Amino acid sequence: MDYQQLVNNIKLWGSELGFQKTAIADIRLDQHEHYLQKWLDQGFHGEMEYMARHGTKRSRPHELQPDTIRVISARMDYLAADTELLQILEDPDKAYISRYALGRDYHKLMRKRLTRLGKRIEEEIGPYGYRAFVDSAPVLEKALAEKAGLGWIGKHTLLLDRSAGSWFFLGEIYTDLPLPVDQPVTQHCGSCSACIDVCPTQAIVAPYQLDARKCISYLTIELHGPIPEAYRKPMGNRVFGCDDCQLVCPWNRFAQFTAEDDFNPRHRLQNSDLVELFCWDEQTYLARTEGSPIRRIGYERWLRNLAIGLGNAPTSEAVLKALRTRTNYPSALVQEHVQWALQQHRAH
């Protein structure tokens, strides 16, 4: 079999399926395994126990999927053209929701496309071993993408591409095919520290080192309990995730807008008032987050996050009225954050 020609075809088929770039990596992740263990030993993963739960399966693909010797890594851009990110972030009455979460959940869309790519290869060469992943198993997706040459891991720990920035999702196909591998690219962060300097909670504790326990994305999405008071004011109006390190990255000047309709904003979530979202009842929340990554935090943490946003908003009768409607909400978590928010306004 001409495996190089097969790789050329895989990249072509990947493009036809909506992936902006597809490349091949081997499975040697020794250095990244060391980085991961050090990160875990420092406790930087916080409550994300799943990062440590699977032993070396995350850094040794053949342990997760037997007979794997190569990984097909694919990138799909998600930045929509009609989102005014900075304007929303700078308006304290608005709710800032991370750009990746404004459209439909990317997991199913990408996994379906990767599975179709896997089947297309099978049509060409016959049965072979493969399995597609999109955040669905212990996979070091950024490490594998870096090995495949899809970009380099920047100082903010996100993958960067010189011609596309970082506004993209990653997915993988583990396979037993001995495909020729692509070469990694060189790093191009240089002396830039924009992402480190802009982080509202100083979560990037050193170049290429993120303490997730301080990261607003972790605090608003992964953390189940109360958000530590030290981070509530710095959160501002960020109620689901945070994009600050991407917004200031010079390489994102070259980011491409997505052609995927599913990644376009839904239910005006790209431009909604904090008060409006806080007043949603649970049924409305469930209806308007159906098929969205936002659904994963649940209604209780949704209110928790929005209460902090309202505590940081300018004092107004609308803000105070909204908060008071939840002072007796049947959740100690929500009540605590509502009381904190009301206290911020009393201080004025």
Question: How would you summarize this macromolecular structure in one to three sentences?
Answer:
The chain is α+β, with helices and mostly antiparallel strands and 348 residues long. The protein is built from 16 helices and 10 strands. The strands form 4 sheets. It has a 4-stranded antiparallel beta sheet with strand order 1-2-7-4, sandwiched between helices.
What's the SSE blueprint?
Blueprint: H1 3-16, E1 21-25, H2 30-41, H3 50-53, H4 61-64, E2 70-77, H5 85-89, E3 96-97, H6 106-125, E4 130-133, H7 141-148, E5 152-153, E6 159-160, E7 168-175, H8 194-198, E8 204-206, E9 209-210, H9 216-222, H10 229-235, E10 238-240, H11 244-247, H12 274-278, H13 282-288, H14 298-312, H15 317-324, H16 332-346
Parallel strand pairs: 3-10
Antiparallel strand pairs: 1-2, 2-7, 4-7, 5-6, 8-9
Helix pairs in contact: 1-6, 14-16
